[in-house]
Amino acid sequence: MKTVFHKADSRGHANHGWLDSYHTFSFANYQDDKRSNFGVLRVVNDDTVKGGMGFGTHPHRDMEIISIPLEGDLEHKDSTGTRGVIQKGEIQVMSAGKGVQHSEYNHNKDKDVKFLQIWIFPRELGVEPRGEQMSMKDGEIRNEFQQIISPNVDDAGLWIHQDAWFNLAKFDKGISRKYKIHQEGNGVYVFVVNGSAKIDDQELNSRDGFGIWDVDGFKLEATEDAEILLMEIPMNLPEYLR
């Protein structure tokens, strides 16, 4: 078993006034050679955007981009024709593929929007851009792992162009569950959205990150009521990055 622990206060930080952003991995002006990625997981940004502000239209390509609102309403528009507002309890994926233009704004003028934006290297380059979102508001599962992303179109949740499985764990204090790795060679990056938890002897608090690999599974225990994101991804980079 191999692990890496990233405390919340060790993340990169940039406050632009309208945007307050924490970077688990190297991003923009925050660069750390030891924290450039975790397998194909490239970006975990924890963003707060002021009312009425946001990211103007800008390009992406060859990246799987996942947005998970934590508070408020995030307005999205892209060149595939996808347009809408995502809220807490909803998730959006965008396959940038061969190229896409998009914008993201705080839908409200009077309150912040907080969201996680996650980037994953895809299996292959140049796929057709696409966007999709889902709501868990009527199907939220407590005290079990709830799959929200997989590689399979017909599986639970959304799908992306990578052998990745994302689960949300909303656990009451004292609940523990065994997580089983889906695919040999994958690792899991655990990000505590709020609350606290434990994996083996490693204590994890709000916004801490913990990567674990070279295992077939592990036990996750909530030491307080907690919301935890588990991102299982290939540890080997695709051939185009080697």
Automatic annotation (TrEMBL):
InterPro entries: Pirin (IPR012093), Pirin_N_dom (IPR003829), Quercetinase_C (IPR041602), RmlC-like_jellyroll (IPR014710), RmlC_Cupin_sf (IPR011051). Signal peptide: none annotated. Fe cation binds at H58, H60, H102, E104. GO terms for molecular function: metal ion binding. Residues 148-233 form the Quercetin 2,3-dioxygenase C-terminal cupin domain. Residues 8-120 form the Pirin N-terminal domain. Keywords: Iron, Metal-binding. Its cofactor is Fe cation. Binds 1 Fe cation per subunit. It holds the Pfam family Pirin_C_2. Belongs to the pirin family. This is Pirin N-terminal domain-containing protein.
